[in-house]
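Record type: monomer structure entry
Structure origin: computed from sequence
Chain ID: A
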Amino acid sequence: MRADDGDRRAALIARKDAALRRWPDRDGGEFEAEMSAIAHELDQLARSLDQANSDPIERLRTWCAAGEAFLLLGAKYALQCAAEAFRYAEAAATLAEANVHDLMKLQHQYGLALLKLAEDKNAELAAEAAARLSTALSLARKHMPVGVAIIKFELIRAEHTVTALRGAQGWRPVETDWRESELV
């Protein structure tokens, strides 16, 4: 990654943070326009880093920043873009040893994107979200206790969604006869 790419990502993240301070309720046309522009610029930067086969850690961080910006928009198309960005970030993470904070943030945000995409309608996406949030929670418990509460809350929400959806779809756990399953 060239220094100017790092500076560009830092500037876009600073712009995102400024937008969150300016529009704390994350609502309105101006917020959406600004966050959309930031998300698309981060997406373009991440794609150019992928094409240049840049450092996987920098690609991971740039894809995560793009995903987070799309996630903040919240619209279905933006959530799909966020999930795609997090998928690319995950691929970059497999190419190098990412630090625990980067991995925790990735799993947490990816889980949130999938949970929002599930929209209380898709049990499989909600289950995938719960798995990612569970991974994030495990990492937070070991390495960043300050993040545990919010991740735990989101995991409970995801698990509740999975349970509710599977119950509504007539899902039942496989019943076993204990006598048949006992080891002799």
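Annotation 1: The longest helix spans residues 29-51.
Annotation 2: The radius of gyration is 19 Å.
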